[in-house]
Automatic annotation (TrEMBL):
The keyword Amino-acid biosynthesis does not apply. Keywords: ATP-binding, Nucleotide-binding, Transport. It comes from Komagataeibacter swingsii. Its main location: membrane. This is Peptide ABC transporter ATP-binding protein. It is a peripheral membrane protein. It comes from the Bacteria.
Amino acid sequence: MTVQETILSVRNLNKVYETPAAWGRAGTRTHVVHDVSFDIQRGEILGLMGESGSGKTTIGRLILQLLHATSGQVALEGCDLCGMTTQALRPLRARMQMIFQDPLFAFNPRHTVHQILGTPLRLHPELVERHGPVDEQIRHVLSQVGLPADVVHRYPKAFSGGQRQRIGIARALIMRPSLIVADEATSALDVCVQAQILNLLLDLRDELDLTILFIAHDLTAMGLVCDRVAVMLRGRIVEIAPTSELFSRPRHPYTASLLQAIPRIGTKAMPGVAPCMPGKGTQVQDGDGGCPFRMSCRWAVAQCAHNGTALRLLEKDHWSACVREDLDLPGL
């Protein structure tokens, strides 16, 4: 039996934004990430799925310490990152990298590809000592993402969207990270290029044993690349399971609603399961222990107003926050 190595462990992660009282108006307190916990194993791709505003990107930035958590723990290979000083975090930055949604805005337009890929190595000279000269590493990482070595003197504006995203992936890979956070890495690309980038990520995962947190709202992309998927709603994870199990047999009504919202040609919507209507719901308030989907859920019961936020293990590796364990919800 193979013992899995946990690369990332997130426990009880919270992020609260507070607006102070001013000009006669009371202060506000918005809980954007609420008590989130999950693990990612080495070589695994975990999908983080949800609507816009659900807190997906915030979690990615909290993991990378681009934002500071209000409370909770983020451990990378057993090292707790929360509360570390900037100086203490510096040597750990190389071990966790991000692929951004739009690489055109993630690059300095006045920098060539050589400068874009070489700058991280110059900031971490230990990588040059360990893995060889800068130029040699740049050529190697470009070949890994399917780009010729002669692109090094060109600027970002000279590339297509797919090529720019490959450069973004190369910039993450050149640091030889343990964890990559891919934040909507394919959503700005057309369908054909999306497929190429997804296949590239899968190939790199297999070749380099990468661990990836794949943040997206595209369920089709999730189904193609992710080993497990976590579903977020208003700052909370409401379901997490292996991809095939979650897509075929969802156990939370919100997940079922998302799956039924996928456009399909020549099929009718399943009776009794309408796509979710977030406008009918209410924002999760501090101290509200109820299910965040209850105002839009046709299966809601009185218990949902007081429970429905804690994940429960229903089957092997399948967790859901829904109190209605008796529901038989349709999948894909």
